[in-house]
Design brief:
Blueprint: H1 10-21, H2 27-33, H3 39-43, E1 46-47, E2 55-56, H4 73-108, H5 119-128, H6 138-154, H7 168-177, H8 184-194, H9 203-233, E3 239-243, E4 253-259, H10 262-271, H11 275-283, E5 289-294, H12 295-305, E6 309-311, H13 316-320, E7 327-330, H14 339-344, E8 349-352, E9 363-364, H15 372-386, E10 402-406, H16 410-418, H17 426-433, E11 439-443, H18 455-466, E12 469-473, H19 475-483, H20 491-495, H21 498-507, E13 512-514, H22 521-534, E14 546-550, H23 556-567, E15 571-574, H24 584-598, E16 602-604, H25 608-625
Parallel strand pairs: 4-5, 4-7, 5-6, 7-8, 8-9, 11-12, 11-14, 12-13, 14-15, 15-16
Antiparallel strand pairs: 1-2, 3-10
Helix pairs in contact: 4-6, 4-8, 4-9, 4-23, 5-6, 5-9, 6-9, 8-9, 9-22, 9-23, 10-12, 10-15, 18-25
The chain binds iron/sulfur cluster (SF4) and Broken Fe4S4 cluster.
Iron/sulfur cluster binds near residues 48 and 55.
């Protein structure tokens, strides 16, 4: 059974111990059972793209160096890599498409349970699409914006329009390289075409299409998801909340939402407070209804409603292990099929809601946006009904919770750093120019049982802020940072360097800013574009003293995110290497040569401190190129040998 988790939060440690004691398998056990994992897969040099195969390249050079069709290691590894990008870009973008459909429904149907919550944001997005707003009704503008967003997916001529949010210099780099995305679906389809047997075999050309699809994700599908969610559900504002498994309350009906799309969870957040449902829960013997989230759905309702976060991706099974969860509601992405086995050990009802994501053994209550409140009510009632089936002897909820502040956005960072009366990025740029802040890092992404849970996230983030690098975070890294106290303003005084402390004290922000869910990495792109637009730090994102990282990555979405950050000109560090190490040429291209072409590149480093130092070295290199002032306070940084 799973070993003790040395670096994880205490609640996870307690629940993993419970799982071991009761011989309930979780993700850590299944990982151990899977050892040794396939070396060919790890190196990216197995192929099953046609039925002459499967084929595999001998990494030691003694066996076959070509597949049956003649594809070599470079071709096979590049094809596998860009298929991961296609998977990630498809997941984010399909999420964006669903939000666009919901906005269209809200605009066209006066009876809809959804309304435009942020008219200002609607008008800003309308401006990107060149949609007139003067003298028009909100619902007309919303319908036009939704239709324009939907066109991004299947346009047959022209380009993705959202990319106009990128700096002009960046758009030119893409145009010159021929990687400007034309339409979101088209770029994903073209990856599948090019990687079919006997199409594209030149590895750099294959990666080029991966780059184009990733830009269609970050500056397209993900950005559509974020921007239209803000219009529908409201622009997040800094908000206080709590995180970790201790938010599950034994006296309440506990309903956990897990997955990614806010369409259902946002409605659940509102409906669960309805008096009649709370009364019903009380009649069932509970004190009320307690809603909490896992993964990015957690981030969505955390930043807009201050709903507590139960945990990150690797805590989904641990939440059930408390024995106090009446119902776990899942939509799409990052749902472990193993959940079904764990829920069977308890009274917990597992409910799937998306026609795209059913699970054997789970109850399926299909969600339809046009009956949102009705279905949300049905699900909450199912949770209440299940309260009576609890075994109160079998409840073990760890006490651990941590306070946090979440809900920053490209707009609210603006307000905070600019002060109340002057909305501008000037103070942020000036703090970097003056050497008070060294630079910025986006640290994001999943957790993975192939590394000690949370060691990568927490050690890296602490090392960065200690060296005056302000951190923005999303996804499961954001949840880990929250559980470890890094999202509190006070954490600046405990962990940050003196310069960053001064900035945090002056504006009252934490040194690590929670910017939302996985699709909200597009907010980080917007922040970078705004910093460039403010001036004084170069003309392109690739000029900025910034870096990105996903120390414990695991999903295809993380590969697409990494690729679009690289494509945006960002040095991007991940823990475990991409599965490309079986191709020396592809490895060299991704980690060295790409930088000449596109301004960003990949880096792989498992040790989170060394990884942070490499990011800081990169930030310092960019500071030197911009001829910025020396750092105000930071000790001379000791580079890694
Ligand atoms: Fe083998 Fe080529 Fe078919 Fe891949 S595409 S399975 S390398 S024959
Ligand atoms: S949920 S993609 S495990 S960050 Fe967005 Fe977390 Fe990674 Fe899923």
């Amino acid at each position: 059974m799973a070993k003790e988790l040395k670096y994880a939060d205490k609640a996870s440690q307690a629940m993993v111990k419970r799982a071991c004691d009761e011989e309930i398998k979780t993700v850590w056990d299944r990982y151990e059972d899977m050892q040794p994992q396939c070396g060919f897969g790890t190196l990216g040099i197995c192929c099953k793209n046609c039925s002459m195969g499967p084929c595999r390249i001998d990494p030691f050079g003694d066996g076959p160096q070509e597949g049956i069709c003649g594809a070599n290691a470079d071709t096979i590894a590049a094809r596998n890599l860009v298929r991961m990008v296609a998977g990630g870009a498809a997941a984010h973008s399909d999420h964006g498409r669903d939000i666009a459909h919901t906005l269209l429904m809200a605009a066209e149907n006066p009876e809809s349970d959804y309304k435009v919550k942020d008219a200002d944001k609607l008008k800003r997005v309308a401006a990107v699409y060149g949609i007139k707003t003067d003298g028009r009704e909100i619902k007309e503008i919303a319908a036009d914006v939704a239709r324009a967003a939907l066109e991004e997916f299947g346009r047959q001529e022209g380009e993705v329009q959202m990319i106009k949010n990128a700096p002009a210099a960046r758009q030119k780099v893409w145009k010159d390289l021929g990687v400007t995305p034309r339409a979101i679906d088209r770029e994903i389809v073209e990856i599948m075409h090019r990687t079919h047997i006997g199409v594209d075999t030149e590895y750099k050309n294959i990666v080029k299409q991966g780059i184009r699809a990733s830009i269609a994700d970050g500056w397209g599908g993900s950005m559509v998801a974020t921007e239209l969610s803000d219009i529908l559900f409201g622009l997040p504002k800094p908000i206080r909340a709590t995180a970790n498994l201790g938010v599950i309350d034994k006296d309440y009906v506990n309903l956990i939402v897990h997955g990614h799309e806010p369409t259902l969870s946002d409605i659940i957040a509102t409906v669960s407070q309805k008096k009649e449902l709370v009364e019903k829960a009380k009649k069932a013997g509970a004190k009320g209804i307690n809603l909490a989230g896992i993964c990015c759905t957690a981030n969505e309702i955390l930043m807009r409603h201050g709903i507590a976060v139960a945990g990150s991706v690797m805590q989904q099974e641990l939440a059930v292990l408390t024995g106090a969860v009446e119902l776990m509601l899942v939509d799409v992405q990052c749902l472990y099929p193993g959940l079904e086995t764990v829920t069977k050990c308890f009274h917990t009802k597992l409910v799937t809601t998306s026609p795209k994501a059913k699970m054997p053994g789970a109850e399926h209550i299909e969600f339809h946006e046009d009956r949102a409140v009705e279905i949300a009510t049905q699900i909450i009632e199912a949770a209440i009904d299940n309260f009576k089936n609890r075994n109160s002897e079998n409840i073990h909820i760890p006490k651990n919770t941590e306070r946090l502040v979440a809900g920053f956005s490209a707009e609210s960072v603006f307000d905070f750093l600019g002060g109340k009366y002057r909305s501008t990025y000037r103070p942020l740029n000036d703090a970097v120019i003056a050497g008070r802040i060294r630079g910025a890092a986006g640290v994001i992404g999943c957790s993975n049982p192939n590394v000690p849970y949370e060691e990568g996230h927490i050690k890296m983030v602490k090392e960065l802020i200690k060296n005056d690098v302000i951190v923005v975070t999303t996804g499961c890294n954001a949840i880990s940072c929250g559980k470890h106290g890094l999202l509190q303003p006070e954490s600046a005084f405990k962990y940050a360097g003196e310069g960053l402390q001064e900035v945090c004290r002056a504006v009252g922000i934490p040194p690590v800013l929670h910017l939302g869910s996985c699709v909200d990495n597009s907010r980080i792109l917007m922040v970078l574009a705004n910093v460039v637009a403010e001036g004084g730090l170069g003309s392109d994102i690739s000029d900025l003293p910034v870096a990105g990282a996903a120390p414990e990555w695991m999903s295809e979405k993380a590969v697409s995110i990494g690729m679009y950050f690289v494509a945006s000109g960002v040095y991007t560090m991940i823990g475990h290497p991409l599965p490309v190490m079986g191709s020396k040429n592809l490895y060299k291209y991704l980690t060295e040569e790409m930088e000449q072409e596109i301004g960003g590149k990949w880096a792989f480093e498992l040790d989170p401190i060394k990884a942070a130092h490499k990011m800081i070295e990169h930030i310092d290199k960019k500071r030197a190129a911009l001829k910025l002032k020396p750092l105000m306070y930071a000790q001379a940084f000791e580079p890694v040998a």
